Amino acid sequence: MLAIKRELKLNKVETSLMRGNAGFKRFVYNFGLDLLTASWSLENVKASDFKRINAIKKVFTQITMQKPEYAWMKKYPSTVYQSVFIDLKNAFERWRKGLAQFPKKKSKKKGDSFTVYKTAGIYPEKGKPPLPFTNRVVINARSLIKLPGLKELRLKERIDFICSSQTFTVSRTADKWFVSFILDAEKIPPIIHPIEKIGVDLGVKVLATCSDGSKYDMPMTTKTAKTKLSKLQWHNRNKVFGNRKLKIKASNNALKYYTCLARHHSRIANIRQDTTQKMTTDISRKAYVIRIEDLNIQGMISNQKLATAVSNNCFYEIRRQFTYKQAHYGTKVELVDRWYPSSKMCCKCHHIQPITLSERVYNCGNCGNIQDRDENASVNLMNAPFDKIRLA
């Protein structure tokens, strides 16, 4: 499955419509979450979360939406609130399995998003199934896109081919709105890789060092963007941002500052994402077996001296990208045990000696091998024994 994400080119009326849909979704999600948690206190009712959410959905459609004070809900597509109850079921299912924390209420501070999809198909005769592909939206090769239940919207970057999809998710980052949808297409992985096996050592000074000698670093634009962000926050340190408890409304300048702050954070995140995506793609294209260390990220972040560098280099995100790109590029990602002495051991004579974090050159006391610390560690990761390796 492949996905496409494009930025929308909206005017003020369309932006207001998108914010309204996102607010509608936020209201329904919090409504369902409150009713579900309140239903657990009823001792006489014995039902699963799935059945309880279905009952809450009936209450919402048959009672809540019919009230005069909630007449504003009818101007938004029905698939918005229908997708909310699907998300609520998935959230509680993941929580029950221990894969996620307990679902929290939606907030404006966390960003706006909503999902719409096409449900109706063309039925040739009554009682017969709909014709195939009639419940999908055809997207032509142009700079316009028609979302189910919404008007035709402009795109900043055109789509160069004809495709179709059923579900569309609209999201906001800072003051920019994006639409994403899934295509029923599969990427054919390459059959041959130039390198059979490679070790990748993730570090603080250098983002990644490979056993074939290649190195990847976080660009200096990240540091420049973080400097601009800190200057922006310092210049606005005395600004009154508003307080709900004290009933102080935020000024227009404060709202402009919030938007500018979100843009800076978005730029830093985009630089990191672009760097890690290009690096993991480049390594996945040239190597079949990729070996990385199973790092204790949470323990490393607890160290105040390393927390900023570890967070900036996105160690877990790199591991996640390597893992999901296995199917795209036909690779196999292996994790080396975190207690394996890849940095302390010489890659030539396998002599183990202590080494501090400040020492950037490995000087073997046994065979006299002098090598860069990260290069030595990457070679050791590549040649790690099988009893220290597990699949990602």
Q: What does it look like?
A:
By secondary structure, the protein is an alpha+beta fold. It folds into two domains: about 1-185, no CATH class; about 195-390, no CATH class. It has ten helices and 16 strands. It has helices spanning about 10-40, 50-65, 80-95, 220-235, 250-285, 295-300, 305-315, 315-325, 325-330, 375-380, and strands at about 1-10, 115, 135-140, 145, 150-155, 165, 165-175, 175-185, 195-200, 210, 215, 285-295, 330-335, 360-365, 370, 390. The strands form four sheets. It has a six-stranded antiparallel beta sheet with strand order 2-7-8-1-5-4. The chain has a six-stranded mixed beta sheet with strand order 11-10-9-12-13-16. The chain has a two-stranded antiparallel ribbon with strand order 3-6. The chain starts with a strand and ends with a strand.
Order of helices and strands: EHHHEEEEEEEEEEHHEHHHHEEEHE
Give the overall shape: globular
Total number of strands: 16
- Mean pLDDT value: 89
Structural domains: how many: 2
Structural class: alpha+beta
Widest sheet: strand ordering:
2-7-8-1-5-4
- Major sheet details: 6 strands, antiparallel
Helix content: 25-40%
Helical stretch tally: 10
Radius of gyration: 26 Å
**How far apart lie the N and C ends?**
21 Å
